[in-house]
Specification:
There is one protein chain. The chain folds into 3 domains: 6-118, Probable tRNA modification gtpase trme, domain 1 (Gyrase A, domain 2, 2-Layer Sandwich), CATH 3.30.1360; 132-193 and 378-436, no CATH class; 213-365, Rossmann fold (3-Layer(aba) Sandwich), CATH 3.40.50.300. It contains 15 helices and 13 strands. The chain has helices at residues 28-36, 86-98, 108-115, 121-132, 136-146, 149-173, 180-213, 227-235, 278-293, 311-314, 355-365, 380-394, 398-403, 405-423, 431-436; strands at residues 6-9, 16-24, 46-51, 57-66, 77-84, 102-103, 215-221, 253-259, 262-268, 296-302, 320-325, 335-339, 342-346. A 7-stranded mixed sheet has the order 8-9-7-10-11-13-12, with helices on both faces. The protein has a 6-stranded mixed sheet with strand order 3-4-5-2-1-6, with helices on one face. The two termini are 43 Å apart. Residues 223-229, 242-244, 246-249, 270-271, 325-326, 328-329, 348-350 line the site of guanosine-5'-triphosphate.
Length: 443
Amino acid sequence: MASDTIVAVATPPGRGAIGVVRVSGPGTSELVARLAGELPAARRASLRTLRDAHGEPLDDAVVIRYAAPASYTGEDMAELQCHGNPLILERLVASACTLGARRARPGEFTERAYLNGRLDLAQAEAVADLIAGATERAARSALRALHGEFARLVDDLVARIRTARAELEASIDFADDLHGAELVTAQHGMLAALCADLDDVIARARQGATLAGGANVAIVGAPNVGKSSLLNRLARAERAIVTATPGTTRDLIDVDVVIGSVPVRLVDTAGLRASDDVIELEGMRRSHAAAARADLVIVVGAADVGETDLPEIAALPAPCIRVRNKIDLEHGVPRVETTARGPLVHLSARTGAGLELLVATVEQTLGVAAEEEGEFTARARHVDALHEARKELAAIDDATLADTPELAAERYRAASAALERITGRYDVEDLLGDIFARFCIGK
Ligand SMILES: Nc1nc2c(ncn2[C@@H]2O[C@H](COP(=O)(O)OP(=O)(O)OP(=O)(O)O)[C@@H](O)[C@H]2O)c(=O)[nH]1
Ligand SMILES: [Mg+2]
């Protein structure tokens, strides 16, 4: 438990009908009693005139007090609902500081909730995602993560890894209890099921990370194919200059848009072609860099420009969607073609025909096509930790199990440690309990 009491304005900056000041920590009751003249009952909305240390009235406020541990942070807490004037709120915070509180750091209320076991780490992160959610779907998914759906999946995997490890370690210590081949078969079964379920969680977490954190999408292609026109279409604003002159865009132009249900940072780039103009060359260098950084690259060609080969694009690590633009010039029909080099969307940035097909293809390629039951938001660090655990499990093979079970056990330990970093539950080893609980007394 923290020993100091923190205070902060909890509502957004600016004027509004109501502004809320939050207080948390052991000094809350005394502080509220000083401000409100007496201590209001817990969990009841009480109208009080708040006064500063000199008895000067600050504001009339609705005071709600929470007694530890039944509060967001797990500590004594109070919410003071004032009139939403930033000057009033600032005076109230300053008065609280005079009376012994200190200003909270960003996220400190949630940090305390985690430290006091009210939330696990993934849930604490979901709180931030819920607040930041750029789309309705992201907000819904963040709420599911906050309700612990993601943490439950991780906890379940950790429990199963521990069981597998406990059984393996038991067989090391009591070598004659289990026949070697039987052990390998049993471990095989557990490992296969674990890896399959872990892969499923990885796919879902990756999707959750895209929903919460968004994706970087670069638009590249030859000059004059309509890259900037496409960006403007998707941004629903004339953000980039469009002209009939090839080589119009010289620098990177990025806009934040929502494509389908994904927050996307969309980057328009300079057209790629042979050139000896220094400005254009620098622009192209940036185009390549943007494509290399992107989570998804949209490679644009056009009906009137002819097929241009961009070999350097083919080598990119990110998935590509190809676009054939300006189908209005060839009386083409909007459609998605499946090609050996990935999906090819026929559309017109000028008329907007086929744009919805591009949106759907982007969602599909980013793996967030349809909202799924139980979808949750996640972070890149969660995906990394899941991959790390997967790598450890993948390294446990028959030879390791049979010849060096200690090494296999160590890999199990590393895998669960990686997973427990997601929820922040990685602490003391209680594996011994796990092991011996599986034996009967006297054995
Ligand atoms: N008919 C038709 N013209 C288009 C379409 N999209 C873009 N254009 C035209 O194509 C020309 C080039 O468009 P831009 O969007 O500037 O092309 P860009 O790929 O950004 O070109 P650079 O910046 O030079 O690399 C402009 O005259 C646009 O009006 C389309 O769908 N149909
Ligand atoms: Mg352009």
